[in-house]
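Project standup — Tuesday

K.O.: blocked on the structure for the chain from last sprint. Re-posting the sequence here as requested.
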Amino acid sequence: MISQKIEKALNNQINEEIFSYYLYLSMQAYFEHQSLSGFANWMNLQAREEQEHAMRIFRYLIDRGGKVELEKIEKPKSDWNSPLNAFEEAYEHEQHITSKINELIDLTTEENDKATAQMLDWFVEEQVEEEATTEEIVCKLNLIGESGSGLLAIDRQLDQRELTD
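H.V.: unblocked you, prediction finished:
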């Protein structure tokens, strides 16, 4: 059986992950409106990953005898100043999620919940990848500056992204 503290924290993390899904879906809509289909593809796949992250915790909580309680999801932002601005915010958001995962790890130590700590190890590794990927795109967008041809080259590159297991 899972402790009430861990159950509440995991429910909060489900909400964080679903908000991430919602945020990336909103960014996808922004990029679709900008006619940047590669950027939109990248955000669509990112949104789907975040939904899977939420469901991974959802299933784990049920498997441990906990109760899933879904909370209201905050409305995400829907417009950005530029593709760079959107990816800067995506990077900041990933750093926020990393901090939330770290808080969960700390709680599992306090609660002596080794099973949940082990489950969260996957998220720790995933967040390293999430931050590195978004930071790389921010760096590339900073490099190209106002170059339209550079933006289109990155758009083509991001259109190549596919879901991986």
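K.O.: great, moving the ticket to review. Helices lie at 4-33, 37-63, 83-110, 114-144, 148-158. The mean pLDDT is 96.
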